[in-house]
């Protein structure tokens, strides 16, 4: 029996992907820190879709957690034919005002854990010459973002890494896809401080900003997957926005963003 493993499955985009995949008859391994939420999801998805749902509680910002997760799926004899590296956190504010250990934790989760899991599971998929890897980046993967410097840079890594793997693993019949969502209504923004007054200066006010629901992002992702795509930016407006931004030099974009953030937050230098 084949399983799809989703990290960060207890909420937001990961939870929506779990519902979408279970509805398409995928058996799932759901991974996150919140054990209660994962148990509830297991019960709900099992009843609703008759899928086999396993849960594994893990804090993937811990150095040893990705290997422990892999070993646990091996111990249970689970054949992971699709890995979705979705778990990720953000941060915002002036770089040196953000706690250093939380920035390093972000890098551990958004980059190191994603690389480790990709390495471990891709090696298994390569042996079987079959499998799918989806890595979740962000619109911030396409440009530096002042006052969100570490998060945006982590997603630049995810984009570059994933686009390279796409070509490396094509000959083995393995589909590697990069998904870049825009602003999505999940807990992410609260956790990254983007719902605060200062945070709004970066993400713009929710009431007026162009946002998607996690369900919309999940539906687009699964459609792109079905069309054998390797790259998808969710949301029509986001795709157009990206095309326009690609025409401008990074220096112009970052200067505009930094000036605008300082103005909106009344920062005196
Ligand atoms: N929302 C947006 O606007 C947006 C935009 C672009 C890209 N993204 C990306 O989309 C992905 C999903 O974000 P989301 O918006 O769905 O966020 P979310 O609602 O905050 O969900 C994040 C998920 O990751 C899990 N998680 C967080 N820290 C973890 C850790 N240390 N170990 C294991 N799991 C952890 C959370 O579960 P637990 O708390 O239970 O661990 C939760 O299931 C992220 O990679 C994010 O960068 C989001």
Termini separation: 59 Å
Task: Assign the CATH superfamily.
Answer: NAD(P)-binding Rossmann-like Domain
> What ligands can be seen in this structure?
NADP nicotinamide-adenine-dinucleotide phosphate
- Uncertain stretches: none
pLDDT averaged over residues? 95
Estimate the strand proportion.
Answer: 5-15%
State the major sheet: 7 strands, parallel
Helix share of residues?
40-55%
Please give the number of β-strands. 7
Could you explain how this protein is built, in words?
Strands 3-2-1-4-5-6-7 form a 7-stranded parallel beta sheet, with helices on both faces. Helix 1 packs parallel to helix 2, helix 3 packs parallel to helix 4 and helix 4 runs parallel beside helix 5. With 269 residues, it is an alpha/beta fold. The longest helix is centred in the middle third of the chain and has 29 residues. It has one domain: 3-Layer(aba) Sandwich (Rossmann fold), CATH 3.40.50. 41% of the residues are buried. The termini are far apart. The chain has 10 helices and 7 strands.
């Amino acid at each position: 029996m084949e399983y799809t493993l989703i990290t960060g499955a207890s909420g937001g985009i990961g939870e929506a992907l779990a519902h979408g995949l279970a509805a398409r008859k995928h058996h799932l391994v759901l991974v996150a820190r919140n054990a209660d939420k994962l148990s509830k999801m297991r019960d709900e998805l099992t009843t609703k879709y008759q899928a086999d749902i396993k849960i594994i509680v893990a804090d993937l910002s811990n150095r040893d957690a990705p290997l422990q997760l892999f070993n646990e799926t091996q111990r249970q004899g689970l054949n992971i034919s699709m890995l979705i590296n979705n778990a990720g956190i953000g941060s915002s504010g002036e770089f040196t005002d953000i706690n250093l250990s939380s920035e390093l934790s972000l890098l551990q989760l958004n980059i190191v854990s994603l690389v480790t899991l990709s390495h471990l599971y891709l090696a298994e998929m390569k042996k079987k010459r079959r499998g799918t890897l989806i890595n979740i980046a962000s619109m911030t993967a396409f440009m530096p973002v002042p006052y969100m410097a570490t998060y945006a840079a982590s997603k630049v890594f995810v984009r570059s890494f994933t686009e390279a793997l796409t070509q490396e693993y094509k000959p083995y019949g393995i589909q590697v896809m990069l998904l870049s969502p825009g602003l999505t209504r999940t807990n992410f923004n609260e956790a990254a401080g983007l719902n605060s007054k200062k945070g709004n200066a970066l993400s713009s006010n929710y009431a007026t900003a162009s946002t998607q629901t996690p369900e919309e992002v999940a539906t687009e992702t699964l459609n792109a997957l079905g069309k054998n795509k390797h790259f998808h930016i969710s949301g029509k407006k986001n795709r157009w926005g990206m095309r326009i931004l690609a025409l401008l030099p990074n220096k112009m974009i970052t200067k505009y963003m930094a000036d605008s953030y300082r103005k909106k937050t009344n920062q005196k230098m």
